[in-house]
Design a protein that fits this description.
homodimer, alpha+beta, Beta-lactamase, two-stranded antiparallel ribbon, eight-stranded antiparallel β-sheet
Chain lengths: 325, 325
């Protein structure tokens, strides 16, 4: 493995920790516009492909049939904070399609948003599946199961019609036959198929295509409701609020993907060691280095490519920074 | 940088993430018994040297003067969970030396132990400095300030007599003049001096020396009270309960150090990217590979060199494993 340095963490005058990785920027014809590292290696995209997993929900007509709003579609593509509005929208997605919380197969965890979590615990509440950061995606999958006339139970199983349809669509947009790829179980228990990084970037380039009406609807939904995709203080939300012309999505274990519709480009990045802190500043620095932005947009992206590191007393002790800019 | 692979994280049939790093095993004469990677590079040892920071507390006579118990000395070397007994012992350390919680300069955070944290929040409590995982070390530093007749305020400052004494002693045992080394601010606001990995291992080899009476007292304290050093379910506590002849201590950003008194060896390990999950299985695999154990001890250490990875529904989805065994 000889992937290049993507991010560094400093403390005082020296670099304390280092993160290597790989990335590919690809256009809709599959041409590599920029890349470093082993972009042929297959990686698990994890939550970075929630927008791809959402495509069949739109294309099958399920979203229209159940009257899903743009806010609700945005939550289907989210790794959310479990804040009150996220929970409300997830519950609406379930109710509109005739589903209910006991059908969830994502598992429960406390809301990721600290103030929400503290309020819930102080009130004697418990962690629920609807608080799971993937509860929007799972509500979309349950709606798709209903629309397909399939048993909603077991919708997370790789052999369930919902996952088969998602695998076929995701394989198509990335030009990879997922049946021949390694498959893992994601944190929320749905399958995650391994996809070469370059093909993942190709998928996001095709997702950027103006002729892809379902993708355009998803991108517009997320652009209109960036809070739904993550939440208060979260990188995805803040970056898309600052630069609305980019679509970004994080995935566990150091994955980040992006679509740049106005330039027809897709981007995929993986940090070798799986660190989110490196993936965040890494994707911002790769994006900022592309020649497709206004000076204002580029300045915003550069701003997200580094941030201070503070300790328990809020003393700034170092910096997390992308090294590609 | 060409440090070797130390740990891998698998999911399904493939390796999802990878952690490189370096380690050195050194004897009391400074001879390298085993090493891989750049062991001349200076790293911040962070909390892995709490036992060194505790030496002046013993050697100055402060611990005897204030009547500190072995349990209390163990807490001075801890990164603890904030469980009830940790808090009780920290408060005792403060009280015996005439100090009090408002003097703490470590900052507050919620107890790391989940059940303790939930109980505290449900009861309407707030996070306090005494819950900080470093509150034992800081109570020791405050006691040392009293013993030296120094103003306890500002004891975390690198120029304070407490930190000067610690820097001199730590530099001595590691054979490094810390005045010439980079210094950062630790998570708990005390200085952390950069030390070459090989010298850090030398320090722990000398710490293993039977003639080092203060070190022997610390090792015996930790051996008698491994719960005090970390807590329920924590790696340091579990490993020292399973293999009492080893002394191990974790530090932030992927550092692990160990002393093996019966063999007169010291060990220091740093994961390049700062991941604790890799440092844990890494130190266990390096230890297990040394020819200084009974078969039972070696089997225990090997057991700690890998563990399953479970998702939100407790499904085992992969493994975290040291690759050096």
């Amino acid at each position: 493995m000889s992937n290049p340095m993507i991010a560094e963490v400093t403390r005082g005058s020296i670099v304390e920790s280092r993160h290597t990785g790989s990335y590919a920027v690809v256009n809709g014809e599959g041409q590599v516009v920029a890349a470093e590292g082993d972009v042929a290696a297959a990686i698990y995209p994890r939550s970075a492909v929630k927008a791809f997993q959402c495509l069949p929900l739109i294309e099958s007509g399920a979203a229209d049939r159940f009257g899903f709003t743009q806010e609700e579609i945005a939550l289907c593509c989210s790794s959310h904070n479990g804040e009150a509005s996220h929970v409300r929208v997830a519950q609406s997605l379930l109710a509109k399609a005739g589903n209910a919380e006991p059908l969830y197969e994502c598992g429960a965890h406390w809301p990721l948003h600290e103030a929400t979590r503290l309020e819930l615990i102080r009130g004697g509440g418990t962690s629920l599946s609807v608080h799971n950061n993937c509860s929007g995606k799972h509500a979309g999958m349950l709606a798709l199961a209903r629309h397909l006339g399939a048993d909603p139970h077991g919708y997370a199983d790789p052999a369930h019609p919902v996952q088969r349809l998602i695998a076929r669509r995701m394989g198509e947009i990335c030009s990879v036959d997922l049946d021949g790829q390694p498959v893992g179980i994601d944190g929320c228990s749905v399958p995650t198929w391994a996809i070469p990084l370059q093909n993942l970037a190709l998928g996001f380039a095709r997702f950027s295509d103006a002729d892809n009406t379902a993708a355009r609807r998803i991108i517009e939904a997320v652009r209109a409701h960036p809070f739904m995709v993550a939440g208060s203080g979260d990188f995805d939300t803040l970056l898309m609020e600052a630069v609305p012309r980019v679509f970004v999505k994080t995935g566990a274990e150091g994955v980040y993907c992006a679509a740049i519709p106005h330039a027809g480009l897709g981007l995929a990045l993986k940090i070798d060691d799986g660190a989110s802190r490196a993936a965040e500043v890494g994707i911002a620095s790769v994006l900022a280095g592309l020649d497709v932005w206004t000076p204002e947009e580029r300045a915003q992206l550069a701003r997200f490519s580094h941030h201070g590191l503070v300790n328990w007393r809020k003393i700034e002790v170092g910096e997390v920074r992308g090294v590609l800019l």
